[in-house]
Design brief:
The complex is a heterodimer of chains A (138) and B (137). By secondary structure, chain A is α/β, with parallel strands linked by helices. Chain A contains three helices and eight strands, in the order H-E-E-E-E-E-H-E-H-E-E. Chain B has a domain of 81 residues: Nucleotidyltransferase, domain 5, CATH 3.30.420. With 137 residues, chain B is α/β, with parallel strands linked by helices. At the A-B interface, helix 1, strand 1, strand 2, strand 6 and helix 3 of A face helix 1, strand 1 and helix 3 of B.
Chain lengths: 138, 137
């Protein structure tokens, strides 16, 4: 008796749902991510033990290692300009949370350099949220 | 010659073969550009308005910051001692006007020290009042 060889069909991976999964992942990343506007600004964050998680805010002020002030990633010429811009941006914000302004400053910058920026935020009606890293207890 | 009136309709298909490739390229982009790190810090209650209007009574605790040391009511303290002394004042149970801790920092004090002291005052439910010299003095 002659035995017939079984014909094997081509092996294929089920890839029909790959695209759906990929798009779900994209939606997840789009919803969860914030684009780093300040990636090109050079500053080292300070650290302290008494810090907690803070929420992202729409406004962010950075003072870099050279003392340059930035608002939402845009370099400004002085603290007075910062105050003017923040005042107009915060004019319609009535909720306290909406008035939060993230303040990020290089740890080696002297008070005479960063304090005008802090004053400008407060004078414009913003609530300063100082951003830094948590330091573990020794 | 017989003509068929019916046109054969071709099956229309949107080409979706490269969709998943594009999707995975986008995913790789998002993975590379997303930072998972959570922001940490603290909200500071810095009173707005005229600096001269800051209530400065004899009882108002004052933290002095100098380049090499920290003073609490003119006595040198470590940051741990400062924290203990501020917590002992139980600011949480006081009205806002009575929770002010004045921060008198020298011009050359760096932000690291300033940040640590502000975080300690805020953790003790104090309101930071910034003392600054008038211009020209």
């Amino acid at each position: 008796m002659k035995l017939r060889r079984k014909r094997r069909g081509p092996i294929s991976m089920p890839v029909a749902s790959m695209g759906d999964i990929a798009f779900l992942l994209i939606i997840f990343f789009m919803v969860c991510s914030n684009f780093a506007k300040e990636a090109n600004i050079r500053y080292k964050s300070p650290s302290a033990q008494d810090v907690a998680a803070v929420r992202e805010a729409g406004l962010s002020v950075v003072v870099d290692d050279q003392g340059q002030i930035y608002l939402n990633g845009r370099a400004l010429d002085s603290a007075a300009t910062l105050e003017g811009m923040l005042t107009s941006m915060l004019r319609d914000k009535t909720d306290a949370v909406q008035r939060n302004v993230l303040f990020k400053c290089d740890l080696n910058v002297a008070r005479k350099v960063f304090e005008p920026a802090l004053d400008a935020i407060v004078s414009a009606g913003g609530v300063v949220v100082a951003v830094g890293e948590r330091r573990r207890k020794e | 010659m017989p003509f068929s009136l019916r046109k054969r309709q071709r099956e229309s298909r949107v080409p979706i073969d490269s969709f998943s490739d594009i999707a995975f390229l986008l995913i790789i982009f998002f993975i590379l550009t997303t930072s998972i790190r959570r922001l940490t810090g603290f909200n500071t209650e810095l009173p707005a308005g005229d600096k001269s209007a800051t209530p400065t009574t004899e009882k108002t605790p004052t933290v002095g910051l100098q380049v090499d040391r920290v003073l609490f009511n003119d006595s040198p303290v470590s940051l741990e001692e400062l924290k203990t002394q501020l917590l002992a004042r139980k600011f949480a149970s006081r009205p806002p006007g009575d929770r002010v801790v004045l921060l008198d920092a020298g011009a050359e004090v760096v932000y690291q020290v300033y940040f640590e002291v502000m975080s300690i005052i805020t953790a003790a439910d104090g309101v930071v009042g910034i003392l600054s010299e008038e211009e020209g003095k």
